[in-house]
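tool=predict chain=A
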Amino acid sequence: MPSVPDRGELLRVLCHVQFPATKQEIYRQCAELGAPAAHLARLETLPEGTYVEADTVLQALPRP
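tool=predict ok
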């Protein structure tokens, strides 16, 4: 089972996302950037909405 990525690992991928972006857009962009499956699994838990920057994404993610 893959380990849960930490905040820094997620930020390394999210810093390449074009914001503002919806949950679906963030997921798609991260997948296109080659994010590991564990990162994408974490992003699937993100609440629906539009996010303005990587930090707001990290804050909105439920605790693992």
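The mean pLDDT is 94. Residues 23-32 form the longest helix (10 residues).
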